[in-house]
Specification:
By secondary structure, the protein is α+β, with helices and mostly antiparallel strands. The chain has six helices and 17 strands. Helix 1 crosses helix 2.
Length: about 270
């Protein structure tokens, strides 16, 4: 009996349904939020066959036929999450209304950071880009409130341990006295902010301008655009993929009006 005759793993099915990446789907399963044919599943070995009824939080899941890949220029003051108990604005809410698929962010930008982030309903795409072994570069422009010493730059490039966690930038380039360009490969949670804080520096503005071959370009704050096929291929390093030019030429989606007035931010 072939693999397809035995169905697909539950977490794969959930990823194809646009719920989350495979890794996040595994956590949802362990939490007991998923049932197959009326039976709650908590283990990772369950396989789904055609015709099986799969529910998450009581709602039916079905694989989506269309794969959607969007690049968003996230403004500061938006959170990368599907919901927020504090009622903060969601980056997800900036996506165009004509997108009917269930979208989720690939990786994160923290609440105060801004710039390029991907949204998709393709769990395999999200899992590959989110894994440390992907080797996808992420480029940031960071402006500080004061002068950034050369010692901070060299320490970040050499690698530094802070509270038991090792941080190391792929490269750091000075742009000005208070501005640097940082390229990360294996980005850790709030890595740049933690390193800055360690050296008693305060980021005034932290903006991601590139993920792999995809650049932020002229995409306005709150705007999004579809990734081109060439960009998706390049991110996944498919055979024959070409690196797209800095400006893809894709027409941006204009942001939706926020659900409530945006609070003034204090840096």
């Amino acid at each position: 009996m072939g693999t397809e005759d035995r169905g697909v793993r539950l977490q794969v099915y959930m990823a194809r349904a646009g719920v989350a990446s495979r890794r996040a789907a595994e956590e949802i399963i362990v939490a007991g939020r998923v049932s197959v044919n009326g039976v709650t599943v908590r283990g990772q070995g369950t396989r789904v066959l055609p015709g099986d009824a799969v529910l998450m939080d009581g709602k039916a899941l079905r694989p989506e036929l269309r794969r959607v890949y969007l690049a968003l220029n996230k403004p500061p003051g938006y959170i990368c999450s599907s919901s927020d108990p504090q009622g903060r604005l969601l980056a997800l809410g900036l996506l165009p209304g004509e997108i009917r698929e269930r979208m989720y962010n690939v990786g994160r930008l923290d609440f105060m950071s801004c710039g390029l982030i991907f949204f998709t309903n393709d769990g395999d795409f999200a899992a590959k880009l989110g894994h440390p072994s992907s080797g996808v570069e992420k480029e940031y422009i960071v402006e500080a409130t004061g002068h950034i010493p050369d010692g901070t730059i060299s320490a970040f490039e050499r690698g530094i341990s802070i509270e038991g966690v090792h941080y190391r930038a792929h490269s750091v380039t000075r742009i000005g006295s208070r501005c640097i360009k940082i390229v990360l490969v294996e980005g850790k949670n709030r890595e740049i902010r933690r390193v800055f804080s360690h050296f008693r520096l305060h980021p005034l503005r932290l903006r991601r301008v590139r993920i792999g071959p995809v650049r932020l370009g002229g995409l306005g704050e709150g705007e999004s655009r579809p990734l081109t096929e060439a960009e998706v291929d390049a991110l996944l390093e498919r055979e024959g993929a070409r690196t797209p030019p800095p400006d893809s030429g894709a027409k941006p989606f204009r942001p939706r009006p926020p659900d409530k007035p945006r609070k003034e931010l204090t840096w």
